[in-house]
Amino acid sequence: MATVLEPTSFAPPKVRQTQLLIGGKWRDAVSGKTFATVNPATEEVIAEVAEGDAADIDLAAKAARAAFESGPWAKMDARDRGKLMTKLANLIEDNFDELAALESLDNGKPICDARAADLPLTIDCLHYYAGWADKIHGQTIPIRGDYFCYTRREPLGVCGQIIPWNFPMLMAAWKWGPALAAGCTVIMKPAEQTPLTCLRMGELAMEAGFPPGVINVVPGYGPTAGAALVKHPGVDKIAFTGEHRTAQIIMADAAQTLKRLTFELGGKSPNIVFADADLDAAIAGAEFGLFFNQGQCCCAGSRLFVEESVHDEFVDKMVERANTRVLGNPFDSKTTQGPQVDRAQFDKILSYIEKGKEQGAACVTGGNRYGDKGYFIEPTIFTGVTDDMAIATDEIFGPVMNILKFKDFNEVVERSNRTNFGLAAAVWTRDVSKAHRIANSVRAGTVWVNCYDVFDAAAPFGGFKMSGIGRELGEAALANYTELKTVTMSLA
Ligand code: ADP
């Protein structure tokens, strides 16, 4: 995996694949259209990528259906499916340097983050689910009467998967892992901002030997390619990660065909620091929990609650720490913060910063664009934030930390839960019972205690309330990709 000695700067990779992968073949879009994918650090076009729309989705749905029903995949032993997945994981590892560089180029994230997080987690996720392929089984059930009753977990079918741009490869692995382990076929619609690594993963999947049509990759825009996938009658399920507003559109669009839906959506996660915490650890965790990946994490600790008695000391140290972040060329190993992914996100974040100032929060560091090229924003910290301010209620998805003061336990629980989101939460304390009481009281799918953003392929992840439906990762995600069948046989 990652080498021990890292070079100080990395070379941008060659872009090898820009077409659509449908039925095991690379092809241009039916319309012949392409769209540009842009390097957010330089605002320059990296490549033109084939732009899929409804016609291409239709071809992909047919290819995925044929592969699901009659291809070699349909008859393949489960353990052999797992072997193919292991091969794909190994090929990703063999091409580690290239893929990390491609992720950094297309997304703007520091290459060191791609090497330390995105790539290892992607590889791990595929290995983890490869191990599940031959362990998905039903039960025998002692029903009344002279019958033999058992259940089977059958693959759900053709699965449409729509992913965002913040962790392009990792989101693809989270989706492909359980789907392929279960024996489904997939049509992946990567985000229009970051199609390149997913296309390259598709290429490696073909090299691994996945039969044609099992994995299809159709880049394009949400309202065209994405919506066509959601509405297509030949697609059995949509797994979506992105904004809750997009999920609302998808839910309405999927109603006609009653597709199975799983959603992993946004958040406004409380990160709670009690006065009895190891403050240095809490500060390091708060920095990571908010600024990692340029603040573009659905589980970002974007409401940082700090107990009154340590608030001022915490803020001083937090500002000092935020100011040590190194913005710049993502290919430089010293860089810890890259640009935001595109102009739209950049503008949205700057407008939230303005709202924060207008509504009376104190911007104690940052608050501006960094440099004059690329979508860089200074690490920004607001204090004096109150629960009703836009920066405390809305998902900003950028390097904007909001510090809220609290006095006691019950108050912070109530305020933490005063949101429609419920993706994650964290608590920093040396008091074990307090930690458990927070973990039990906060309405969120994941609670971290004295840590933040600890992910593992085996640990389920997903949201309460408007942060999602269903769980990704772990054994739980297999349920998203299987149908339960009950078989009852007369023994008379
Ligand atoms: P963001 O605003 O962070 O880009 P989105 O929810 O808009 O988040 O996008 C996440 C994914 O959803 C992307 O792949 C995007 O193309 C897709 N998408 C956007 N709108 C739709 C839609 N109406 N139907 C299906 N997919 C969509």
Number of helices: 15
Strand order of the largest sheet: 14-15-16-13-12-17-18
Ligand types: adenosine-5'-diphosphate
Class per helix and strand makeup: alpha/beta
Given as residue ranges, the uncertain stretches (5+ residues, pLDDT < 50) are none
**Percent of residues in beta strands?**
15-25%
Radius of gyration: 23 Å
User: Which bin fits the share of residues in helices?
Assistant: 25-40%
Strands, total number? 20
**Major β-sheet annotation:** 7 strands, mixed
Which term fits the overall shape? globular
Average pLDDT confidence is: 97
Cα separation of the termini: 58 Å
Question: Could you characterize what this model shows?
Answer:
With about 500 residues, the protein is an alpha/beta fold. The protein contains 15 helices and 20 strands. The protein has a seven-stranded mixed sheet, with helices on both faces. A six-stranded mixed sheet has the order 9-8-7-10-11-19, with helices on both faces. Strands 5-6-20 form a three-stranded antiparallel sheet, with no helix packed on it. Strand 15 (about 380-385), helix 13 (about 390-395) and strand 16 (about 400-405) form a beta-alpha-beta unit. The longest helix is centred in the N-terminal third of the chain and has 22 residues, at about 110-130. The radius of gyration is 23 Å and the shape is globular. The chain starts with 19 loop residues before the first strand and ends with a strand. About 50% of the residues are buried. The model has no long low-confidence stretch (mean pLDDT about 95). Adenosine-5'-diphosphate binds near residues 164, 189 and 249. Adenosine-5'-diphosphate binds near residues 222 and 227.
